[in-house]
Design goal:
The protein has 136 residues and is of the alpha/beta class. The chain has helices at residues 17-26, 30-33, 42-54, 67-70, 74-85, 102-108, 126-132; strands at 10-13, 36-39, 62-66, 92-97, 114-119. The longest helix has 13 residues, at 42-54.
């Protein structure tokens, strides 16, 4: 197991509460759950980032976004993340989609802070891997 000091913090925004619950259940120990911040609503996530991460000068390593959560507000949401990025100490932004849409992927990958575009389903231990850097 990775030491707590080396574990990464992951903010995960997904439109499906069951997917978020499943990801949380898959974490192998309670210690890992403390490094996952799940949200089903992008506005709640932005509020959390502004108050708990930026406001308390905390580090956030990964932001995982379900493209469906952003819906028609995709560009506006990504612009908002871009505006906060300087205050967030440069986390990796990972966008996940339900479908392979090359037009959307090309648009999303134009943002310099977006590091990865993935198509669901993601591996079941993906969140644990982001937190620990290891595959269990």
């Amino acid at each position: 197991m990775t030491s707590a000091a080396k574990m990464k913090k992951v903010l995960y925004i997904d439109s499906e509460p069951s997917f978020l619950a499943q990801q949380k259940e898959l974490l192998t120990c309670k210690e890992l759950e403390e490094h996952l911040y799940p949200f089903g609503n992008i506005d709640e996530a932005f509020n959390f980032i502004e108050k708990q991460i930026i406001g308390k000068n905390n580090k956030l390593h990964y932001i995982v976004l379900d493209a469906k959560v952003m819906g028609n507000q995709l560009s506006n949401s990504l612009e908002r993340f871009g505006g906060l990025n300087n205050y967030l100490k440069k986390p990796d932004v990972i966008v996940i989609s339900d479908e392979i849409n090359m037009l959307a992927k090309n648009h999303i990958m134009q943002y310099p802070f977006v590091s990865v575009f993935l198509v669901k389903p993601v591996p079941t231990n993906y969140i644990e891997f982001l937190i620990t850097g290891q595959i269990s």
